[in-house]
Design brief:
The chain is mainly alpha-helical and about 240 residues long. The chain folds into two domains: about 90 residues, Metalloenzyme, LuxS/M16 peptidase-like (Cytochrome Bc1 Complex, Chain A, domain 1), CATH 3.30.830.10; about 110 residues, Metalloenzyme, LuxS/M16 peptidase-like (Cytochrome Bc1 Complex, Chain A, domain 1). It is built from nine helices and three strands; from the N terminus they run αααααβααββαα. Strands 1-3-2 form a three-stranded antiparallel β-sheet, with helices on both faces. Helix 6 crosses helix 9 and helix 7 runs antiparallel to helix 8. The two termini are about 30 Å apart.
Length: about 240
């Protein structure tokens, strides 16, 4: 598949239909759509602002020639990373890799730094459903930033998991939301920190107010020493499980 893909038109059309159905499924799911909207709103025309699945129009227009061009220019030795995990013999694995990948096309993939421009706007997307889904987003950091581990800890304490501040203050103590959490997505050139909540229209204002209060609290006072140490253990535990 890596070395000799031909992208047979019949198989291509079959996969095209699968992806179109997947796009439709995401469009029918508000809790998925909201996360696409937040990145589109922040990065607009930059590549990071486009949906990973593509759009209905781009998938329908994709040709065999388009895929072959992408395949031949990007699937080269300088742009491939082999990752191994589990119980394996290193020397035997290395021999196998050298045998099967020795004639892989050479070359380096030239990455063009995008430097996406951040934009801010409130977007309302109306749908005939019972819940209100909201997302608040702000620029984060890239995965090369030395502060990335601090952001991981901050997010874990602030909004990731049932012991986080957001979950405890918004859902556990006040019952204002069905779901509430935060996450940070780090990319090569940029990042985004997102807070998400699903609530009722009656509780929307209270949820926003509580989220705002928690943002201000962590901004002004940070994390307590106990909270930080507990969060470190939580993150380490999650890494071991993963």
């Amino acid at each position: 598949m890596i070395k000799n893909s031909q992208f047979d038109p019949t198989e291509l059309n079959r996969e095209r239909e699968v992806i179109l159905k997947e796009i439709k499924m995401y469009e029918d799911s508000p809790d998925e759509t909201i996360h696409e909207l937040i990145t589109q709103n922040l990065w607009r025309t930059a590549a990071l602002g486009r949906p990973i699945l593509g759009s209905t129009s781009t998938i329908q227009a994709m040709t065999q020639a388009d895929l072959m061009d992408l395949y031949q220019t990007q699937y080269v030795s300088g742009n491939i990373l082999v990752c191994l995990a589990g119980n394996f013999d290193w020397e035997e694995t290395l021999k196998s890799l050298n045998k099967h990948l020795k004639d892989l096309r050479g070359g380096d993939f030239s990455h063009k730094k995008t430097n996406p421009k951040n934009t801010f706007e409130t977007i309302l997307f109306q749908k005939d459903i019972e819940q209100v889904h909201l997302a608040l987003g702000t620029p984060g950091i890239s995965h090369n930033n030395p502060l990335k581990h601090a952001v991981i800890l901050l997010n874990a304490a602030f909004g990731s998991g049932m012991s986080s501040r957001l979950f405890q203050e918004v859902r556990e103590k006040r019952g204002l939301a069905y779901s509430v959490f935060s996450y940070h997505s780090a990319f090569r050139d940029a990042g985004i920190f997102t807070i998400y909540a699903a609530t009722s229209i009656d509780h929307l204002a209270k949820v926003l107010d509580r989220i705002h209060s928690e943002i201000i609290r962590v901004f002004r006072k940070g994390l307590t020493k106990t909270e930080l140490e507990e969060t470190k253990e939580q993150v380490k535990g999650n890494l071991l499980i993963a």
